[in-house]
Amino acid sequence: NAKRRGQGHFVLYSVEMEKAAKTATRIEQALRRAIAADEVEPYFQPIVDLDSRRIIGFEALARWTDPEIGVVMPATFIPIAEERGFISQLAQKVLRKAILAARDWPDDVYLSFNLSPSQLVDQQTVSQIKGILASTGFDPRRLEIELTETGLMTDPRSAAKIIEELRDHGMRIALDDFGTGQSSLGRLRDFRFDKLKIDRSFVSSMLEDQPSEHIVRAIVALCEGLRLGVIAEGIEQEEQAQLLMSLGCSEGQGYLFGAPIDASAALLLVHAQDKALSA
Ligand code: C2E
Ligand code: MG
Ligand code: MG
Ligand code: MG
Q1: CA distance 83 to 27
Q2: 16-22: average pLDDT
Q3: What is the pLDDT of residues 208-227, one digit of tens each?
Q4: Contact predicate 59/253, CB 8 Å
């Protein structure tokens, strides 16, 4: 009986796995076509100075709508491009488009771009990014590169080398989703970052949950001591922004200040801000 039930489970499991693999393959094919047709677009989410609420940067976030499948979110398609070996093609196209959009912003507004784990084991990543910067004439000091702790772990030496080369070229490195995943404080000693991004999970619960507030407080203090910039992600309420400011967090990002928007809307937004400030 137990054996039969076991077999039944095995059959069910493998059917589920087969379905997942089929879906991934369908997405892979559609995504490869969309990349070739240049249909994956960067959207831009504002990053603000919490005191003045001025937009000081935008994070580029990939967006893709397939004519048949519909909207596919990056949490679904980025891992597929990673696992199936074409993330660098996707990333280069999206970075180039993001930079072309960012060139029209005021010089003091930066662009932040996410690197995937597999790009941190690929030594071609640096020359690809440098090539895009050179061909677009974009100042590397206006480009921030976000990476995650998971991405550092596959091959820490390769990641460290890539980080150093990007920094030597003038880019800043931000550690994304800090405090989740495979967090280790040793990482802050072994790699040179310019900024930590406090994960949304702490920010969204910090008003109700004492431990979350204490963790945020500790991360901000850590950044102060290590002379790192700090940014809180996923701010949705004014009370969260107020608490973060009182803790000394300088930069923020979240739906309170704006969701990701397309290039033309982002351009309108920074221009409106400049007009309001000079009026
Ligand atoms: P991430 O880099 O941590 O980006 C922040 C995510 O949180 C984005 O989701 C953003 O839309 C969402 N978000 C921002 N503010 C709020 C808020 O106030 N509340 C809530 N609930 N969510 C908020 P998105 O665009 O779906 O991207 C998910 C992840 O996919 C990103 O997480 C990043 O890891 C990855 N990703 C997106 N675009 C790219 C890309 O071009 N390249 C790579 N390698 N990864 C990307
Ligand atoms: Mg990010
Ligand atoms: Mg993040
Ligand atoms: Mg995140």
Answers
A1: 12
A2: 86
A3: 999 999 999 999 999 999 99
A4: yes
Structure tokens at 29: 């094919």
Any ligand 1 atom below 6 A from CB of 155: no
Query: 74-120 pLDDT, tens per residue?
Result: 999 999 999 999 999 999 999 999 999 999 999 999 999 999 999 99
Give the closest residue (by CA) to ligand 1 atom 34: 114
Q: What is the pTM of this model?
A: 0.94
Q: Ligand 1 pocket: which of 35, 47, 77, 114 to mutate (most atoms <8 Å of CB)?
A: 114
What residue owns the CA closest to ligand 1's atom 43? 114
- Number of neighbouring beta carbons within 10 Å of residue 65: 12
Distance CA 161, CA 109 (A): 27
Residue nearest to atom 4 of ligand 1 (CA): 61
Element (H, E) at 171: none
Nearest-angstrom CA–CA distance, 70 and 78: 16
